[in-house]
Task: structure prediction
Amino acid sequence: MYDEIKQYDCVFVSRNEQSDTSSAMGEAMLKIIIIFAELERKLTAERVYSIMLSRAEKGKWNGANVPFGYQWNEVSKFPIPDPEESVIVDLFLKDI
Result:
């Protein structure tokens, strides 16, 4: 968004963050905020990826929707075949 604002030779003024890019100090502060926001976004992505990889390596469920033909098992914390839905899946797979 900041690049687009600069492209049209406009300034950014925020009442909430007290940012005003019409001055050199305001523009510098906004750039610092942008850099730290990007850093936080990347660090969060790295943490989520690391946790999901660790759970997958341990054979744990990563939290997606349970696929059709399975049901959630509270004891094992993992999907198990659903007897009713698995019949439909078998019928579908026979046609393929």
Summary: Residues 67 and 79 are 8 Å apart (CA to CA).
